[in-house]
Automatic annotation (TrEMBL), chains A, B:
Species: Nostoc flagelliforme FACHB-838
Co-factor binding details: Binds 1 divalent metal cation per subunit. Can use either Co(2+) or Zn(2+).
UniProt cross-references to CDD domains, sorted A to Z: DHQS
Segments forming domain 3-dehydroquinate synthase N-terminal: 69-181
Record protein name field: 3-dehydroquinate synthase
Gene: aroB
Amino acid sequence: MTSVINVNLPEQSYEIAIAPSSLDQLGQQMASLKLGKKVLLVSNPTIFKHFGERAIASLTSAGFEVASCTLPPGERYKTLNSIQKIYDIALENRLERSATMVALGGGVIGDMTGFAAATWLRGINVVQVPTTLLAMVDSAIGGKTGVNHPHGKNLIGAFHQPRLVLIDPEVLKTLPMREFRAGMAEVIKYGVIWDAELFAQLEASKRLDQLRYVKPDLITYILTRSCQAKADVVSKDEKEGGLRAILNYGHTIGHAVESLTGYRLVNHGEAVAIGMVAAGQIAVELGMWQKEDTERQNALIQKTGLPTQLPSGVDIEAIIDALQLDKKVKAGKVRFVLPTEIGVVTITDEVPSDIIRQVLRGM
Amino acid sequence: MTSVINVNLPEQSYEIAIAPSSLDQLGQQMASLKLGKKVLLVSNPTIFKHFGERAIASLTSAGFEVASCTLPPGERYKTLNSIQKIYDIALENRLERSATMVALGGGVIGDMTGFAAATWLRGINVVQVPTTLLAMVDSAIGGKTGVNHPHGKNLIGAFHQPRLVLIDPEVLKTLPMREFRAGMAEVIKYGVIWDAELFAQLEASKRLDQLRYVKPDLITYILTRSCQAKADVVSKDEKEGGLRAILNYGHTIGHAVESLTGYRLVNHGEAVAIGMVAAGQIAVELGMWQKEDTERQNALIQKTGLPTQLPSGVDIEAIIDALQLDKKVKAGKVRFVLPTEIGVVTITDEVPSDIIRQVLRGM
């Protein structure tokens, strides 16, 4: 069973195809898009070991000439240096404008491959084949690409939409538990900001802390609803003029926590979970959200095994300072996405620092 | 007298404003665009010494907060390393999404500032204030930005349109003669590919080899007609799907010559001049263009003091090989822009290597 979601954009629309074993259909799916013959597959060593051969076999049998390159795993290698390696291999293999880069991996590989494709010859095709839950429901969709600056996450980047997003839920079987949970943070986010039915389904599920307790049907449901939520929002606001900013729910404080812990102690999903708890409480303090709803949200986060408290040792004033560096800052004012009910959020830059301080102290 | 040319694009249109002393109007012109308060002015040390103070004074008096940075001059510094310096200063000055980078300089500064603006926070505003003839009539218009890869020019880049192009012809007075001539190569190009009247005006002018022999009225005419030609082409084909490729007239072999001489011996305009002579002759050999017209073109190039012959020591086979690396290569076939009459060109990828070889041997 293949579930297909359309991302409709003015310049170029594309499909998100979700189906078990679809990794073996990669070449065939790409062939139907009439892309050039040359493909550069970018991955990390672990993912490449698991799935590289299958991806290459599928591409080759569909007639593509495939070169590949692997980059070291982890957010701290999401740098211009890694991009330079992709450029070098693109040059060696004489990638032309009609060529395609394929990102086989998690968010780091997807963001970097997307950015390299956005900037090689001023833009070539990219296909996203996400292998983590986080990348499947979030980073592989919507065209945000980029790398980190030593002093801030994703400060360097471009908008560059993929030609196809291919999701094979079966590849999640090799995903470490902590990574699975990190992805669930974004899934819960969609429930809070957009899809109350998804939220209710998650609440009704007994366990969400490990993939093996989640039935394949529910996984497909979770992927489909989450991708649909992201596609809905991105289709309405490709370049974050307005609505798209709601996807940053939990990310304002989340990014600060991630950055202050050196992108190591706390991963992105965990940081978003902490950020959602904080944002929920801020909304309660401002009288915008019901206390019961924030408790429902936090219970769901806990059921998934994600943190709901600040990691010890993180300085609250350092978080307040770091917020000023956020990309979402406008005229020095920090923008927050805050829930008003399950499935609905609003955006405000009128959150007093004292409220932020107080909420963080309570965590 | 201000001459204003509109570049009409689906996502964002902008003006090219040409007027003597307009450098002092920079701040005022930008203020009318309702950009954010923060500006990062990027220049090179020589240009900054000549014009930096005036630009900053104009910006400051219009209410902008201005930071500045200078980068070493020359094509060989058009690298990701230089871009990283711009990012560092953008971070230090906390440039937000509403901020603007202003490129005050020639093509190298314009391309790099444009690329930095395209990729900082996934895209902030850029204003182009070109100070060389080449940048005024060509690189500052149309949104092509980028840097060089050690093995190829402009291989890394993005499309990112400026919010404004401000041209002050008076700044050309400090431009070295060789740079003036380099710009004239692109002016002649517009005559050949698009504007027979401009071509005729250039033919009718006694001397074109130094700025001081060209009357201010003619300079304004040259700037206006050239910018109009570029704006016409770019408006019809922003991302080089088809028509825009005609701007590469003279650039196919030109880029190869530039690259093989290490971007030092021959500058961009000189390389384009050589490339136009070669392309013209190829068109004649293929029976597409009149011999008399190619002679008119070459006479104009010579009158401007530009080279019409290959620099000694450049290996013809190396040029043939280098053509394969050109961004314009499609499925291994090199695309050439060839004239069919003065003011009209066509695009073909059916030029036999032997014809290229023969023409280059004759130069």
